[in-house]
Specification:
Length: 271
């Protein structure tokens, strides 16, 4: 009888252990079985799912940048990815200790505005009368976020699921003087030199050299379990190397050394 009870307990333990954790990924990415995701962050997230070998299952749920954080509070299984850490966000979500992505700092991209210095503060840009677009709910880094919050009425604020794309379109159409965006994102949409004619890219004094994107999950038991598993995957040297390798050649030649150095430091890799 004792052995029978022990066998039942063992079988139950195996069943519980083999049950995957379900994660709702709140994102503007809609999976297509016939086409791989174009952005690196989604590719790396799916690579983590594969690395965990059935311990987690990811379901993508569409949402705007503003709504995704509300969903994180409401849904105990919800996680976001490629998110900048800020004190406000850390108060409402659990973050992985290691990053998923590293980016060059955002740039101020201007159209048809000659004789502007390579580095400029946002305060100076606004005093010059530039109409600059930003996305509601997006973090551009702590210093820039603080400046936007303090001067919200001075910016054109776009809302909704495709707000960043709409801002880039508005800049191209001449409806805005400038936007705050990653230079690589904008250039990938304008691959020819002719298409970039008239645009200028300016370092922002309030920004640092690099920005990290992390995975964030709901502050719940389910979210804690998800973060523990995702962090365990990010601690694997083979996955860390894959993340670093994936960033090679992704950005401008001048910015790549800062990106790779930042990732090595974040993963505590000596090189």
């Amino acid at each position: 009888m004792r052995y029978a009870i022990l066998l039942i307990v063992c079988l139950c333990s195996v069943t519980v252990k083999s049950e995957p954790i379900h994660i709702d990924i709140i994102s503007d990415y809609s999976p297509d079985s016939k086409q791989a995701p174009a952005d690196l962050a989604t590719q790396l997230l799916l690579k983590i799912e594969h690395t965990l070998q059935g311990k987690v299952t990811l379901d993508f749920m569409p949402a705007s940048r503003e709504r995704e954080w509300r969903e994180l509070v409401r849904n105990p299984n919800a996680c976001l990815y490629n998110k900048v850490k800020t004190p406000e966000r850390e108060a409402m979500a659990l973050f992985t200790a290691y990053p998923l992505m590293s980016f060059p700092a955002n740039r101020l991209i201007l159209k048809n505005q000659p004789n502007i210095p390579d580095t400029i503060s946002l305060g100076t840009a606004l005093r010059m009368g530039f109409n600059i677009g930003v996305s509601e709910g997006r973090s551009y880094g702590l210093e820039i976020d603080n400046f936007i919050t303090a001067n919200r009425n001075a910016f054109w604020v776009a809302e909704g699921n495709q707000s960043a794309y709409r801002l880039r379109t508005m800049l191209s159409q001449g409806k805005l003087d400038g936007i705050i965006e990653y230079s690589s994102v904008f250039i990938n949409e304008h691959p020819s030199a002719q298409a970039l004619n008239g645009y200028s890219f300016h370092a922002i004094e309030e920004a640092g050299l690099t920005i990290f994107g992390y995975i964030a999950c709901a502050k719940s038991n389910e979210g804690k379990q998800a973060i523990d598993l995702l962090q365990a995957a990010l601690q694997r040297p083979d996955l860390q190397l894959a993340i670093i390798t994936a960033h090679t050649g992704l950005f401008f030649e001048q910015e790549e050394p800062f990106i790779l150095r930042a990732l090595h430091k974040a993963f505590n890799i000596q090189h």
